[in-house]
């Protein structure tokens, strides 16, 4: 197995993640490489890594090339049976690697292409990390804020109506711990690099599903995930990239009228909903973040439309 970690100013979180990899048991597999791809960090997080404890390879990009592209760099031409894409804000427990690999190795699971595990937060509460494949209606419920008004009636693609306390086949598992068969990753050509960050994993899961593979959530294996992670540093830009990726996903997987409607709603309806929500909380900081995110989105809209129609 190879482990790929994309780093961007993760600070001490990266070192803690690496320590947890070293401490995790490896009875069911051989760890061939841990590849850290650094997207032009400026915090020195790459400078104090213990290169003797793990079979470590580092790749330093002079600029931030995006998450999906960096994952593809790390996976490269890997011949490992499995590739684990692991966020630097993750901390593994003792059996976090052995259990999912053991599950994937079982003969009756040979068509499971992707596996995720149960993630817990600082309070040891289970994070709800699985998702449905989106439809235009599910995206609209999120866009219009209907999920906040009536979450039981207006679902989004996030699976929040299940406690995540049992093993089951799902549409998608969160990319913070994303274990993929090496053969599947090669078959699909890796992540679609048009998604700079966000939804590149969901797009991959959907393409895997179309190719006859399934994704599985293994609640019996656990790891710690810090909510928000390094993206907390840039909330407005994070919102911009999430909205941008949603538009790209729509143009890739929906028909052109649905995709056009999704883009129009994202550009015209959603900013008003977000601003009203921020104003109701009297949060000037949230208002500024919404305005900043949409300024970036409007400025990038022509390029998004062009990127969406690239073959």
Please provide a written account of the structure:
- Helix 4 (136-143) runs parallel beside helix 9 (256-280) and helix 8 (235-253) packs parallel to helix 10 (284-308).
- Helix 1 links the parallel strand 1 (2-7) and strand 2.
- With 311 residues, this protein is an alpha/beta fold.
- The chain is built from 10 helices and 11 strands.
- The chain is 41% helix and 19% strand.
- The two termini are 32 Å apart.
- Strands 1, 2, 3, 4, 5, 6, 8, 10 and 11 form a 9-stranded mixed sheet that branches. Strands 7-9 form a two-stranded antiparallel ribbon.
Q: What is the radius of gyration computed over CA atoms, rounded to a whole number of angstroms?
A: 19 Å
Main beta sheet strand tally, sense and closure: 9 strands, mixed
What string gives the helices and strands in order? EHEEHEEHEEHHEEEHHEHHH
Q: Cα distance, first to last residue?
A: 32 Å
What is the count of β-strands? 11
Look at the structure and give the mean pLDDT. 94
- Global geometry: globular
Spans of at least 5 consecutive residues with low confidence = none
Beta-strand content estimate = 15-25%
Task: Tally the helices.
Answer: 10
Work out the helicity level.
40-55%
Structural class, from secondary structure content? alpha/beta
